[in-house]
Every structure is written in structure tokens, then in C-alpha cells.
Design goal:
The structure holds 2 protein chains of 2 kinds. By secondary structure, chain A is α/β, with parallel strands linked by helices. Chain A has 8 helices and 10 strands. The chains are: A alpha/beta, B alpha+beta.
Chain lengths: 255, 66
């Protein structure tokens, strides 16, 4: 079973709550995904729609909330969002995101490390969203991050695991759980990440914008489970040369 | 007097407290976090914290996100 910062998770699929067509669809899709941890963001209240409150839709006994710092462009903004999240009753868990460039939404490694150091001091359980940089992953682990969240490909792109080589190194080196996050657009992508030995994956867009988000959530859950079982079962080695599956011997009667 | 609430200027009566403001806007206190002039208020402070002229109020809550 997956353990992060002393908390156990039966499901290795974490869900995002953005981009769903309605709160009802989100609720049903998250239930179908089997996930036990969900990300949420912080924004100004829409004063024209004061009753629009995600907290009234999601059951907090069922899901651990992982507030993110999306929208932060530097460490200072991320720390401010983190403190607001905690004051909102979001708890100590935090997905740290620092993305200065709106075009790529790639995370700033230096600001992410700075913010991690401060937020760990303040008692947060920090899960930093990072580019798939093995050295940075180790630095964040040393700084007290409880997990690292390397990206498969940029947020919302559904391109899959483009960072395979680096993620393999991160998984091989990390002492903390590795959660592949961002860009996982199809069940095959999460299966790939899990087969590589990722501890978990986080999926939002691919489920939320699917034609049928509830069925897609189920498909992702199955792929995560399949990938994990395959990893635990031990995959065969990869070779460039063919090796027959049928015996070489016993063909004398043909020639 | 005027305060800036979520980026918009609002006219309020002197002596208005944060909790009054939330009630006026139809917001459950438990569903928002309030930052006033850069300081995060605890929920207990909503009833006692009096807004000043030109106070900058940010009303924040959780929304869907990834």
C-alpha cells in the first residue's frame, strides 16, 4: 500500500477537480476513479455567485484535500497561497506549483526549492510539482518534501510520458514517493508510468474533459492498477534481438 | 467609507466588521478565508475585525483545480 507522510492510500490514482462540466459529474467521476486524494485550487470568491462552493460538493471524510498553489509565479506567491489554503481549513498537505510562464506552465525549479524550504519549516507536507529533473528531486527530498511530482508532459496537454528517461532516474533514486503528474492524457499513459515504478499518478484534464468522464475515470483506475501489478510482477527485459517464444528444438522433421 | 473587496470598490458604513460584510454578500463564513490588508484572519476574528477606510479585503475559497 502507498504511504505518503505516514498516511496510507489504497488507490494510486489521485484526482484533480478542475474543468468538469458540473459538480455532479465531478463527484461521480471521482467516485468512479476510486481516488482518495483530490487537488483543489484557491481563487477569489465570485461575488456574483456566492453559493458556488466546491467544499459543499465533496465529502471530506472520503477525500484528502491537496490544495495547490496554481497561479503562483514565484516562491512568495506560492507561500501566500499555501497559508491561505491552511487558513481555509485545507490542512497541511500542499501541492506546490510555481509556474511563471503561462505559455508552458513549466515549474520554476529555484523558486520551487525556496518555497519548499520555507513551507516545510512552517509545517506543511509539501508535494512539489517539478520538471522531471532527478537532481532537483533529490534536493527537494533533502529539503523535506514528502513526495515529488515530476511532470510527464506540460499541464493539460495530454501528451503522455515524454520525460521517461528522467522519470526512470527519479524513481531509481528517490526515497520519497514519486507521483507522475501532468500531461497524462490516456489510460495507456498512466499504465506506462506505473509500469516504470511510479508510486502514483495524478490525473485531471484527461478525465474531466472526456466525452464520458465517469467511464473515463474508471478506465484510468483500471490502468493504474494494471500498471502497478505489472511493475510488482516484474516486466521482462527489453532486447533489440528477437528471441523465439516457441522451442528451437524439434524442427528436424521439416528439413 | 470605501473598501476594496476582491478588486472592486465598495461603499460600506463605518464600523462594519468582516462578518457583517460576509453576511451582506451572502457568504458562509466557513466557506471562505479572508485576507485583510495582507493579513490572514482567523474565523474567530471575522466578528471582531473592523474594516477601515481603504481596507483591502480579499475573500478566497477553494475551487476546482488540478
Amino acid at each position: 500500500m502507498l504511504t505518503i507522510a505516514g498516511r496510507k492510500f489504497r488507490s494510486r490514482l489521485f484526482g484533480g477537480t478542475g474543468k468538469f462540466s458540473s459538480p455532479e459529474v465531478m463527484k461521480e467521476a471521482l467516485a468512479a476513479s476510486g481516488c482518495e486524494m483530490v487537488t483543489v485550487a484557491l481563487r477569489r470568491v465570485d461575488l456574483n455567485n456566492p453559493a458556488d462552493d466546491i467544499m459543499s460538493v465533496l465529502d471530506r471524510d472520503r477525500y484528502l484535500f491537496l490544495p495547490n498553489t496554481s497561479g503562483a509565479r514565484d516562491a512568495g506567491e506560492a507561500i501566500r497561497l499555501a497559508r491561505l489554503a491552511r487558513a481555509s481549513g485545507g490542512g497541511e498537505w500542499l501541492k506546490l506549483e510555481v509556474t511563471p510562464d503561462p505559455r508552458t506552465l513549466l515549474p520554476d525549479p529555484i523558486e520551487t526549492l525556496k518555497a519548499t524550504e520555507e513551507l516545510v519549516r512552517e509545517g506543511f507536507k509539501v508535494l512539489p510539482y517539478i520538471n522531471a529533473d532527478p537532481i532537483l528531486a533529490l534536493r527537494l527530498q533533502d529539503a523535506g518534501a514528502v513526495a515529488v511530482m515530476p511532470l510527464g508532459s506540460p499541464i493539460g496537454t495530454n501528451q503522455g510520458v515524454l520525460t521517461r528517461f528522467q522519470i526512470e532516474i527519479i524513481i531509481a533514486q528517490a526515497q520519497v514517493p514519486v507521483i507522475v503528474d501532468a500531461g497524462l492524457g490516456a489510460p495507456s499513459h498512466v499504465a506506462e508510468a506505473m509500469e516504470m515504478g511510479a508510486d502514483a499518478v495524478l490525473v485531471n484534464t484527461a478525465i474531466a474533459v472526456a466525452g464520458d468522464p465517469v467511464r473515463m475515470a474508471r478506465a484510468f483506475a483500471m490502468a493504474v492498477e494494471a500498471g502497478r501489478i505489472a511493475y510488482e510482477a516484474g516486466l521482462g527485459s527489453v532486447s533489440k534481438d528477437a528471441a523465439p517464444s516457441s522451442p528451437d528444438d524439434g524442427l528436424g522433421f521439416l528439413r | 467609507m470605501k473598501v476594496l473587496c476582491n478588486g472592486k470598490a465598495q461603499e460600506i458604513a463605518p464600523g462594519t466588521r468582516v462578518a457583517d460584510c460576509l453576511r451582506e454578500l451572502g457568504l458562509e463564513a466557513s466557506s471562505v478565508v479572508v485576507e485583510c490588508d495582507g493579513k490572514i484572519l482567523t474565523r474567530e476574528e471575522y466578528e471582531s475585525h473592523e474594516l477601515q477606510d481603504s481596507s483591502v479585503l480579499e475573500l478566497i475559497r477553494f475551487v476546482g483545480g488540478g
